Amino acid sequence: MQTEMKQFWGLIENGLVDWLSSDTYFLLKRILTVIFPLVWLSAMAELVVKGCLTSNGYYYQTLGVKNWLPGLSVWRTFFQLLQQIPAHLIAIMGCYVTAEWVSRFSGDHKRWVGITAVAGYLMLNTSSLSGSNATFYGASLGYKGLFLAVMVGYFVGWIIRLANHRTDSITTQNTIRGWALGMVILFAGIGLLVREFVTTGLVNVFYRFLTYPFQSTTKLLAMLGESLLNGFYWLIGLNGPLAINNNDVVSSLENFAYVITHDSLKNLPYPVTFHTVVDTFATFGGPGMTLGLIIAILLASDDHHERRITWLSLVPGLGNLNLPLLVGIPVVLNPVYGIPFLLAPLASIGIAFGLLKLGWLVPVVYPLYNAIPGPFQGFFGSGGHLSGLIVGLICLLVSVAIYYPFVKWNARLQGRIEERRSE
Amino acid sequence: MIKKRYGWWLLLFGLCVLLFLPGYLTLSKQTEAFKTSKKTYMAPLIMVPGSSATPNRYDGLVTELNKKTTVKHSLLRVLVKTDGQLKFSGKIRARDPQPIIVVGFENSADGEQNIYQQAKWFNIAFKRLQSVYQFNHFSALGHSNGGLILTLFMEENLSKYNVTADRLMAIGSPFNMEEKDRNVKTGMYNTLYKQRLYLPSSLTVYSVAGGTSLKSDGIVPDSSVALGRNVFQGSVKHYTEITVTGSTSNHADLPENPQIIKLMEQYLLTGKPKSSSKPN
């Protein structure tokens, strides 16, 4: 029995090493490495905008930023530029790098392929709201569009490589140009079709489809299921549709109205909702409780690269923005970190749900400001109830404990991956 | 390894405390701000008539007001008996954004001591109304002593509720009773003035005086109404004084005065006035 288990485990490890040292994963890592600086800069600026410069930001309210910072709106615009422009380059860079790499050309040739793919991707995502002008829908160009952008890049790179396969080097340049032109015309045609059916580009249709299973709920199983699916979307490089702190608007408002009129947190109409459980206790550091991963890496990892990325991701992580960590480590498409990424929120949901049902935890009723450090959400959202803080810290500790062995395991596998790639 | 990185962990812990502190130190202020920022759908207009009037005093006025606004206001009358019991008549329509509630008193006699007592009775009625209808903001209109009762209530009891007062219109209210000499201060004025800082700072006050002569509306001297300014200015958000003359501007007729009805529509009612047939 024990040897069978060992064999089985060996198979799993081999499979993981195969995947993590494969060419496809290497390409994906390359893409993520290229976009990391953009993601990081954008996240840092987003933290400043959301937390310090807008009226529902935690630091804006608690530090009274409005009272002492001159030219508030100018600062806001400045940081929004730093946030949005790099973010809008993410999908484009992903598309470009993929097409270049898949085509396996060099020099000008590969640049041609990359530019063709970017043009193709942009054509799929124009907004028809402004008539016949081709304007872009900003969000589609960000991380949200990365998945589709990589697909387009892959397709373009692959087709042009295939077309060029049998030609000799003298005709290569003309062949590539010809095919590039053909591709651009093809995507313009598809883009035209997309505009006929949707006003905001293909990425948004895709997301409308993805968000379909997400419904507001008060049932434990549904919460666990939605959290799992959301985590899974993030892992395969899609923006999970569950926005932090923005769920269950109606029941949250009713809870809030109850507190205002009764001045008491007892007998709330909806003590257990997606908001009081998942939003509040299962999103520390962002989706996947990645604040736990940050602490686990700082505790257990000796990998220089991993530690550097983690330190860089700490500040955005304290504002519940974890894209730098997901892209930098990477957690995306990495099954080793994928498992705890899915499990850690489930543990927190279980803890918070159980304690709320038992009445030992005071639910969050006050609106949560943006960028409150995750473990403090339960405390501030309940108007300063100690149970919120204690449960917050318990959930954090549990998530660290869940991530810890996987950090160790990852370090062991990395050694094998390097061996494999150097062979 | 942990020992080696002791400094870093200390830094991390310090950072967490640093991020926690601003929220912790401003917690009660934030919570309070949340509570007052969210307003309920219903915000009644509470009317208190002057002495010797029953809760039916404003039936005609409400009918008149309803003719002029697109949203109809339902009417609830509350009579507070001398033993503190409440008698209701009329009713509030479901989802009425601004019902009108008239609070009258079994003992509605004039006199300073009576007014203090009526303010206490009003508090009993308000407590019940608020717990039944769950509103967290309201406007009020008081005629004559009714204005004094409302002012006393706002100074002495309103802070006990999680309720804010939006607007108060006092019509012909004698803040210095019937005293004609503004240098002679009555006990009522002194009480109102002494407690003025307890008035809600978000309140907007309109004090309307009637003028049948250059000195009074027939009963209440101008100077007594005007002393309201000393009570309200600086304690509330806005204070506006208006004097209405012409026919029906004697003290008793003021609530039916067409000019004053227009002021009520303009300043107290939330329903849009029916549009006039032709724009100018």
* Main sheet attributes: strand count, strand direction, barrel closure of chain B: 8 strands, mixed
Task: Tell me the total number of β-strands of chain A.
Answer: 2
Strand order of the largest sheet of chain B: 3-2-4-1-5-6-7-8
Low-confidence stretches of chain B: 276-280
- CATH secondary-structure class of chain B: Alpha Beta
Number of helices of chain A: 19
The oligomeric state of the chains shown is: heterodimer
Mean pLDDT across all amino acids of chain A: 87
Major sheet details of chain A: 2 strands, antiparallel
* Strand and helix order of chain A: HHHHHHHEEHHHHHHHHHHHH
Tell me what you see in this structure:
Chain B: Keywords: Acyltransferase, Transferase. Chain B: One of its GO terms (molecular function) is acyltransferase activity. Chain B: This is Acyltransferase. The complex is a heterodimer of chains A (423) and B (280). Chain A is an all-alpha fold and 423 residues long. Chain A has two domains: 89-206, no CATH class; 211-422, no CATH class. Helices cover 71% and strands 1% of the residues of chain A. Chain A has helices at residues 2-20, 23-53, 58-62, 65-68, 72-88, 90-103, 107-124, 146-164, 169-197, 202-210, 220-235, 249-262, 274-281, 290-300, 304-318, 323-328, 335-358, 377-381, 386-422; strands at 126-127, 135-136. Chain A has a two-stranded antiparallel ribbon with strand order 1-2. The radius of gyration of chain A is 24 Å and the shape is globular. Chain B has 280 residues and is α/β, with parallel strands linked by helices. Chain B has a single domain (42-267), classed as Rossmann fold (3-Layer(aba) Sandwich), CATH 3.40.50.1820. Chain B has helices at 6-25, 27-37, 59-68, 112-133, 145-156, 187-194, 222-226, 228-232, 258-267; strands at 45-48, 75-80, 86-90, 100-105, 137-143, 164-171, 204-211, 238-245. Chain B has an eight-stranded mixed β-sheet, sandwiched between helices. In chain B, strand 5, helix 5 and strand 6 form a beta-alpha-beta unit. The relative contact order of chain B is 0.13. Residues 276-280 of chain B have low confidence and may be disordered.
